[in-house]
Amino acid sequence: FASYYGDHMVLQKEPAGAVVWGYGAPGAVVTVVLTGDGGLVVMKKVTRVEGASGMWVTILDPMEPGGPYALTAAAGSENATLLDVHFGDVWLCSGQSNMAMTVLQIANASQELAKAARYPEVRLFAVAPARADAELEDLERVGLPWAVPTAENLGQGNFTYFSAICWLLGRSLYEARRYPVGLVEAAWGGTPIEAWSSRRALRACGLLGDAGSSRLGLVFRSPLSPALSSSTSLPQNPSGPQTPSVLWNAMIHPLLNMTLRGVAWYQGEANAFLHTDRYNCTFPALVADWRRAFHTGSAGQTEPLLPFGFVQVAREPAGREGKALNRGLSGSCSASQLSTYHQQSPADAFARLRWHQTADLGVVPNARLPRTFMAVAMDLGDERSPYGSIHPRDKQSVAQRLLLGARAVAYGEKKVVFQGPYPTRAVLEGTRQLLNVTYGQELVWRRRETQGFEVRCSSQHGWLPAPVVTVGSRTVTLALTGCGTLALALRYAWAEWPCDYLACPLYNPQGLPAPPFL
């Protein structure tokens, strides 16, 4: 079998068929048998090893959720058997350090780790960090082979495995769906989207020249100092590779034969310093490219509009000192290492990035990002995080917001509210110098002293505060003092640190924050 098949694994359930593949002698006939209780044969498939590649591939018939099963591949006198195989939903979790943060690092870690034994039907697999200059067919290394969750493998160390966001989302999906869930982590801290993108996707955004060299000479000053050492032994520099496509080649391309149910993505902080204003192209291009690649690689078993959830990034508070990004890794920090992200990023880089994460449309799903869902995290910043405030410890709230999106978008639950209120229109009362902004949901005005709205009166002047006069059931009335009878543009929560913890101005009754807009 290929590297990412093993005992305790979860294969995708019906209506899709799970793809299974491996290696053998060219031309050899391979018989794949799925057996249930008492050795009862459930399914038998016969395939052949292709001479050129030395690989065999078969697609299992769609299976109802459940297990355990045994899966055997036999060729002549040789055979391999995988035990404790289940069928359920398989989710891929990818991104940079906020996805790589383990359960050991989050709020209430000890309680979360103690719950691991309650979820034996949620299974874990972690891809080892690796890079490659060409697309690989199989993984070079496995970080965590398929495993039943334990306190040990959920909290292996800092930024290793297992991903807290991935675990919390998968655990919640299991609670909602009540059948097995397989979680595949492929994450590396400090990495830009370009490293996770195929060359095909980068060309679509004009980021690869005709020369086609593997290195673009991209300038990226790493926010994680390589000089800092970890108190927990890390398998790699926590600031990962920046070179285009190297993580796609080594960590994603090998997985393309896997039949998936969905993707969770937590990345973007690195692109506050690299091609920030291309993210409105590179992110939709990555989503579309991954979907096409997984659909093709699984012979059509992974659906073409694979559900894709992502986290709209939080931020370190501007001007607040003492936030060393690596404090949780090194145990101490010097003055030169303080507030690294704030020192390096342009003044509104994170605000622009959040907007670009939605393909400049504010909410998802939309025409450029169909069948996607977003967890807004701008109100989950963590000033006291020992890992730097760019790494908030409240991953439970992030996962809960992702879960709502997954239930609504991936699983089609029509009554689930999964995003905060967003404006549908704005009407200017010029004579009274008021602007009435109507939202599509009921509003909760949580922080009256926080002013999140700004208005631009003319192209010659900058942005001015637009104080809130009143908040109605679905309408916010803003004062346009100093604007006269003309307002060219309006924006909300357009700041590096828009609001304190769970304290943005506007939410819906379900507790979801209104996302930023421009």
Automatic annotation (TrEMBL):
GO terms for biological process: carbohydrate metabolic process. The lineage of its organism: Eukaryota, Metazoa, Chordata, Craniata, Vertebrata. GO terms for molecular function: sialate O-acetylesterase activity. SUPFAM superfamilies: SGNH hydrolase (SSF52266). It comes from the Eukaryota. The gene is Siae. This is SIAE acetylesterase.
